[in-house]
Amino acid sequence: MLHDISSKNASKSSNQNKYNATLKKFFLYLYYIGGRLLYETLQSNLPKVIPTISSLNRYIAENSTKLDEGVMDFQELKLFLEERNLKKFVWISEDATRITGRIEYDSRSNKVVGFVLPLRNGLPETNHYIASSAQTIQEYFKIGTKAHSAYIHNCGTTPI
């Protein structure tokens, strides 16, 4: 398989290499599991066989759902369960990890992200830090609390 990829890409310039979706997913998995250093080492030793990291990032951007800060996507969970004929009875877990917080502007949602979101009825208030003006953003820095933990909520089906 790797030989075939190398043969197909041998006569092309490096920005014209082609990889199908299955291969991109495989190399993306390799990058996630092995880390950047391993991936760069393999890439330098297997020229024209492994896509560049920027190609993988572009693939992710084009084929992934953008996650919004604080959003619990219950409709997507329901659709996922229905498409796979799984029971709509799941367990939910939460995990947190300490982060070096960073405040940044998300142009896609027009929000300032990285502050701790206030809770309403136990769930994050997702439309809280909207970047409506420079003055508003300055106010967020005065009143907002920078997040120091990242949380993830996982769902899994039960064997019932």
Automatic annotation (TrEMBL):
It comes from Zophobas morio. This is Uncharacterized protein.
